[in-house]
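Hey everyone, long-time lurker, first post.

I ran two proteins through the pipeline my lab uses and got sequence/structure pairs for each. Pasting them in order. The first:
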Amino acid sequence: MTQTVGESHTWKTPPVDWAEEQALRIAQTVRTLRGKRSAQWLADRTEALGYTVTRSVISDLELGRRRYVSTAEIIVLAAALTVPPAYLLYPDLPDGPVEIVPGTPVPSISALRWFSGERIYQPSPQRVGLKLAKQHSDLGTSEAALVVELSRKRLQLREQMTKLTTIAKSARTSPDVRATVTQEISAIWDELENVDGELEALHAVVVSDPLEDERLGG
């Protein structure tokens, strides 16, 4: 069937490669999330956030006249639609198949975990050859991966600290429980200091904050 000139510049013409497939997936997700609200409404939301994605860009993306999306656009569109940026990339959670890299389909949740730093992508030897697969395996324990892992651990420890501190300061907490909680807080502080030390050794950005000031008596 012969395509018209108009159809050749819309999503009626399927994506030609992995990059265009990503653009189509993002476009469809944006269209679904904005629902009955106009493209101008979404453009106004992005403008209010400080980086304008114009109505024409949104329309061209949704129709397929534009077949790419920048990282800046993904972030601000996600913020305007009140979803995580990764959801625009991987909307078919948890099990919908998606190509994590060209030609490598995985469940969407696996792609999301890699994108968010929870796991490292390891290509199969059959796909990239034994030598390159070994290089990727070595990268799995790289400093960058370790910084992500330690940062996540640090956040979890700090969340525990906040909860325990609230309990310790509560007037309804009995002396016995307060003593136990105080010991737990001390142990978490020690672990936090170790994690911060590891992060600093890896040249990560670690900033003092009110939690630390509180321990120091500030």
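...and the second, right after it:
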Amino acid sequence: MSSKIDIKCVYLNENFEILDANREFYVYFDAVGHDVNTLEDFTGTGSLSPLKKFLLSENKQNKYKLLKFKKNRHTLKTNFVTAYDSIFKGQKSVCLKMIDIEQCIKFIKKQNNDTDELIYALSIPNDSIFSYHENDNFIKITQFYNNKKNVLYECDIDEWKKYCLEQKFIPENQESAFLNFIEKIKTCPKEINASFYTSLRTNNPEILENLYFLGIRFVSNGELTVVGRIVLKENAEQFRQQKYIIEQLHTDSLTKLFNKETITTYAKRVFEEHKKENSALVIMDLDHFKPVNDTFGHLAGDKVLSRTGEILKEIIGERGLVGRYGGDEFLIVSYGMKNETILRGFLHSILLKIKNEFAGKFDDISISCSIGCAVFPKNGTSYDELFKKADFGLYRAKDKGRNRYVFFRDDLHAELFRKSVQANDIVKYADREVQELKYMAEFMQDIAVAPKEAVERILTHLKETFNLDNITVFAGDDLKAEFSLGKKLVNHQNANYAKSNEFKKLLSGKNYFTNSFIESTLETKSSFRQEMELSGIKSTAQCILGTAENIKALITFNHTKISQLWAEYEINCIAMFASALNLLYNKNPQKIIF
């Protein structure tokens, strides 16, 4: 491969007919299968209209587009496009330049991700470039002239700083600006721009240049790098448009976040090579995004995704990186999660800002987010292990009703995670919901034929599926415990509390309710809560057989390890279970036997 990416150049007249083109253009479009004489002959159908609009615009110079062009009869290839008005042989024309994205990526890989070489390949003229690599604290400055390059400096940045000061390359009145530049670049900021007078290119303290350092943060094979150009200050503005090409290779075009490949590669480096302790891998998924897309259109959906990306960047700042993993799913690598308080605060801020941002904007569709998180090295020492546990947390967050975060805890999740991996049954929330509702439909059919067996079977299934610690059935006039599954609870021999007015209020006219008890410092607690806490219950769902005034039986579904809200489909299943029991009881009370 040559040291330069092929840039296809074509001159078009006012009717978009080809006046002339370079060799690279004709080689690239040689396999189209027909003569290439007009814009339509080599442009993809969906890109033709936006390309014409771009070519006719007055401010196209120094701007870029991503459009598709015909590579052969059946293939379209995405290219960077730029254009400017020109005169060709005395005739008004527009010059269109194209760079194939795939070729750029292949070039990077072939050059071992040498960011200097990438910039050189993109035809930067006679300028100097710099790169700073976080992993080895090295700075490299290369000067290009007449297609030749000369490495001026390549060493530890602190040694470079000392050398420049000792050699008097930095005037005394410029030392502050120079030292600020050094400190800032070492933080690997998203963008950097600094200017000062120096003789670092001339090697003569008597010959000073007012140099402008313009750079962007770049991820090269998972390593944080700052890459930029060193130009005379009066030429600096040109770089602001040219840096767009570099960004597009590694960013998602809609959200401007890192794309899946880049954020994944970086995450692997953080956890498997740098082994940054207290770094968190976070997977975030938007709740109810599909209904917004379906109801309000893809343009509205794109705006949601774009704004979500902005919010995540605002929250994370310089404490990590975020990328779009795909669809409405985002992957975050965040540093400094030293304790549970910091982690909770970080995750909660994401929940709160996403929820507030879209509140009331899509009628009754409430956009929120669900988050799963795992921390290195507490939850794992490889990217794959951490990703699986973060994904498990996301699944649990969706499973428990959305709009919440779950960070992996060995004391709560290890055994369930192990079983899930072994059974390969970590399914998506929507699939689980459909699966459980189908199971309830089968139960409603079975209960009419063999009620006792159907009830025992469904209770066993619900205990395992909802990861319940206990299910207890109370029956008779004194509501004694007649049947129990799972952990044996203390002070749980009867349910006399169900005869209270407070219990009737909890039912609110239904035959079931759910309740969770979060940790509280309040001195006053309801009688029902006190009853549950005496039995060690932290979350409960309860359904009755009969009426609130005349309860024939009470079935309780209980969590004792942690207080957690009930997922929507769990509530639906319990409601269906209660309704099925009551329907059968109303028809034939003798059929219900516990």
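Reply from user beta_strand_b:
Welcome! Quick read of the second one: The chain has four domains: 8-99, 111-248, 260-426, 433-591. The first strand starts at residue 8 and ends at 12.
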